């Protein structure tokens, strides 16, 4: 039986110019879940709602089986967070930030934090402001990891990093994982999620459009690139998303083997997460 570190059921949030609509997701133990969508789709709003920084008008959120409104210190101790905006004074030196975090978390691991800084050439005596954008991104990640959380909530954690540094961070996330831990990984760098995610959730205009295991995407999903004339003849088939252009039509299907068998002449590829995101953003679904 699957166990979950995080469950959202029919969560609705109303803001001045944006709504989250009936958000229902489950983050299993032992999995990294990619959370994708264009800017303004609702990824950050969802994470802030999980953390009680925004209040839903309806629905339920459970973390480790407890309601999120009842987040006792023992529960908060098991959550690591990276948000896009910093939560500390940028004039603080890194060793000063560490002292604040030590008071916030009983399980703060000074040796592990120092090891992470040393392996990435980050000087504790620098202020946050003096660090490069890439160093700042790494520091946020290390601050989220150093108390050994069970659930990581990551909002664009690899933004600002070069490809080599991003790969190093993905390796750290892989090393972090075990059968009890989970990561909700919000990112617009979909190639990172292609490498690391076990499951993908796509949000568009405040509503969940798509939830699927990465293995199922690889096995069953396909992109068809066909002419408008051929597309018109396929009206008996249902597609998840369709993007019509002047001389071609791109279709997303979950019936890869059927189309491979019945229409071997079609141009067919396995979609990346970016392909799916673009189809849901620009196409009809």
TrEMBL record:
> What are the recorded GO MF terms, alphabetically?
ATP binding; ATP hydrolysis activity
Return the protein name: ABC transporter ATP-binding protein
Keywords assigned by UniProt?
A: ATP-binding, Nucleotide-binding, Transport
Q: Does the keyword Cell membrane apply?
A: no
Xref: Gene3D superfamilies: P-loop containing nucleotide triphosphate hydrolases (3.40.50.300)
Among the Pfam families in the record, one is ABC_tran
Tell me the leader sequence span: none
């Amino acid at each position: 039986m699957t166990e979950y570190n995080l469950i959202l059921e029919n969560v609705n949030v109303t803001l001045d110019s944006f709504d989250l609509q009936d958000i229902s997701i489950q983050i299993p133990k032992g999995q990294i879940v990619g959370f994708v969508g264009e800017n303004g789709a609702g990824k950050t709003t969802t994470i802030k709602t999980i953390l009680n920084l925004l209040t839903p008008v309806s629905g339920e959120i459970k973390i480790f089986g407890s309601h999120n409104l009842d987040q006792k210190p023992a529960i908060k101790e098991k959550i690591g967070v990276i948000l896009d905006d910093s939560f500390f004074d940028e004039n603080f030196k890194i060793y000063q930030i560490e002292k604040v975090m030590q008071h916030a978390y009983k399980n703060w691991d000074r040796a592990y934090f120092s090891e992470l800084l040393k392996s990435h050439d980050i000087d504790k005596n620098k202020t946050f402001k003096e660090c490069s954008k890439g160093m700042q991104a790494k520091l946020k990640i290390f601050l989220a990891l150093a108390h050994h959380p069970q659930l990581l909530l990551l909002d664009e954690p690899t933004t600002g990093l070069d490809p080599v540094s991003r790969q190093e961070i993905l390796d750290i996330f892989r090393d972090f994982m075990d059968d009890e831990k989970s990561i909700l990984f919000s990112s617009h760098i979909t190639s990172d999620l292609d490498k690391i995610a076990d499951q993908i959730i796509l949000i568009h205009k405040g509503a969940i459009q798509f939830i699927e295991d990465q293995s199922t995407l690889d096995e069953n999903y396909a992109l068809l690139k066909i002419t408008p004339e051929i597309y018109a003849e396929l009206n008996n088939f249902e597609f998840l998303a369709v993007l019509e252009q002047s001389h071609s039509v791109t279709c997303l299907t979950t019936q890869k083997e059927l189309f491979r068998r019945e229409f071997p002449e079609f141009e067919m590829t396995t979609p990346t997460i970016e392909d799916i995101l673009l189809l849901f953003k620009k196409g009809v679904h």
